[in-house]
Amino acid sequence: MKTQDIMQRLSAKHPGEAEYLQAVQEVLESIEEVYNRHPEFEEAKIIERMVEPDRIFTFRVTWIDDRGQVQTNLGYRVQFNSAIGPYKGGLRFHRAVTPSMLKFLGFEQTFKNALTTLPMGGAKGGSDFDPVGKSDNEIMRFCQAFMLELWRCIGPDQDIPAGDVGVGGREIGFLNGMYQKLSREYHTGVLTGKGMTWGGSILRPEATGYGALYFTQHLLHKADKSIEGKRIAVSGFGNVAWGACKKATELGAKVVAISGPDGVCEIKDGITAEMIDYMLVMRSSNRNRVQDMADKFPAKAKFVEGKKAWSIPCDIALPCAFQNELDEDDAKQLVKNGCWCCCEVSNMGCRPEAIHFFQHNHILFAPGKAVNAGGVATSGLEMTQNAQHLNWTAKEVDERLHHIMQSIHEQCVEHGTQPDGSIDYVKGANIAGFMKVATAMLEQGLI
Ligand code: 2IT
Predict the structure, then answer these.
(1) Given ligand 1 and candidates 208, 346, 381, which is best to mutate, with the most ligand atoms within 8 Å of its CB?
(2) Cβ contacts of residue 384 below 8 Å, gap of 6+?
């Protein structure tokens, strides 16, 4: 297998699908060497099969806005790979959603889910519906209309969606309500990220951010460093950024920046508990403006329009917002300002050139599919609780999440340790995830 040849064929077949091709290329580059040591993979054409989704559902979603106008959006579910378990992955509501974006996310999800140690295949879905500026009633009507189509494609042992950008507890509630009404049977485990009174798991809202910080702790420990007292720049202010800020602060680090599409808030003395709580208000307002934090806490947060979180001096950068949010120039600026570690929390948050820059400059770097896997792992724990008709305690969920993040770190070290003793976390995560999925596919025949 040659990455270049496969990429050439794929880009001819899927022209213009930039995010999808970027995600595939990163994985293929990492695994090429290992793959070529296994002729049985080549014989079964594992790569050719693995880079294409099993199937994609596309549907029209029509709903009525608050002015009584008819609105039409597109909805999708990309069921990528079910070699190791039922399809599992979030739903993204964002105006820029395209099949390419959801294919990249579904592809990444397949390897990420394999890393969690839990039996989950990979999927992703969503819509080009833009939640910015929408009322709660509009969100509800959209979610209901979206589920009118989606419900035929999903099920607790078939495909289990959850949240992603633009889809949080409120949206999962509306989606779940409609699903239960349509199916006329109470399938508790058909969505994860549910509310605590209707089948949700304690700590699921926090899990992506908490897991990311647990992973960061392991990575720092391995490098003989600690997180205490370190300055952390976080991008975004949504669910993932919120969990990351909470745990980072609890562990004694100082979150000195959060950001939004409008700019960055510099928080010199570190974010406070009150400000972290306010992030939830900002998210549910649907305004999508980080300036609101500086307006609410003018003595603590300074808003700078049009700048990214990466312009604020820090020790550790945690991209928590969107793919490709950190480019090569950002990486250079971070390093110039003293940053020495970047743990990607968003899916594919860094451009490939930024990752290469970090790696060439010996900056500790770990990829999203390892760092952010605590979210989907805790979704897996929610499914287990649903299947048992039980709720575990916060202590039990947190211990399991800790254990899973430790195991993901160990898998990265096992597969990513280089001859010079350094650890390539990108290679480690990709090889570990790939080997698990490839072996499962091989053992189950040509299907
Ligand atoms: O990117 C992700 O892993 C998620 N959005 C969470 C998916 C899930 O099924 O919990």
Answers:
(1) 208
(2) none
